[in-house]
Specification:
CATH class of one domain: Alpha Beta
Largest sheet: 7 strands, antiparallel
Order of helices and strands: EHEEEEEEHH
Distance between the termini: 33 Å
CATH topology of one domain: Alpha-D-Glucose-1,6-Bisphosphate, Chain A, domain 4
Structural class: alpha+beta
Number of helices: 3
Strand content: 35-45%
CATH superfamily of one domain: START domain
């Protein structure tokens, strides 16, 4: 397993930074190599991306989420990775966004990309583009303020949060 940690300050209030991060379907606008993210449910997303020159389709699940604090995820099946993004109040107009991620490169190409620090550079670039994206907009494109408690040992995480009207789309849309 390889790991990455990167933090930067964004010039928006914590609520704005967090709210934008919950809009997974906008990730292709600032994440290099991410072609699409489709919200399947409050806790599941389907991704299409290019990782170290290899096209991948995979699903992720949110394993813990607390408004204005953190979003944690892991993949469901290969490629194996997971992590947490935390949000820390610096002042009324600045938020520190920290990403911690662990991933397991598959095959020669991904292992070489990992060794050359290409994944680390891509993640750092993605966070810098997120900063530019949200600061330029000045506001979030949407929000989901629900909470996903950490999973109990051996069980799937239950979802709690703000109710939505029947027939409304899942978060991120």
């Amino acid at each position: 397993m390889s790991s990455i940690e990167y933090a930067l300050d964004v010039r928006v209030p914590i609520r704005v930074a967090y709210n934008q991060w919950t809009q997974f379907e906008t990730f292709p606008e600032f994440m290099e190599g991410v072609e699409s993210v489709k919200q399947l449910s409050d806790t599941r997303n389907a991704w299409q991306a290019e990782i170290a020159g290899v096209r991948r389709e995979f699903e992720t699940e949110i394993t813990e989420q607390r408004p204005d604090e953190k979003v944690a995820w892991r993949t469901v099946g290969p490629p194996h990775h997971g992590g947490i993004v935390t949000f820390r109040h610096i002042d009324a107009t600045t938020t520190r966004v920290t990403l911690q991620m662990e991933y397991d490169p598959e095959g020669f190409v991904e292992t070489a990309g990992d060794w050359l620090q290409l994944v680390r550079m891509r993640v750092q670039g993605d966070l810098r583009r997120f900063k530019d994206f949200i600061e330029t907009r000045g506001g979030e494109t949407g929000a989901w303020r629900g909470e996903v408690p950490p999973p109990a040992t051996g069980t799937a995480p239950p979802v709690t949060g703000m109710p939505r009207p029947p027939g409304s789309p899942p978060m991120g849309t």
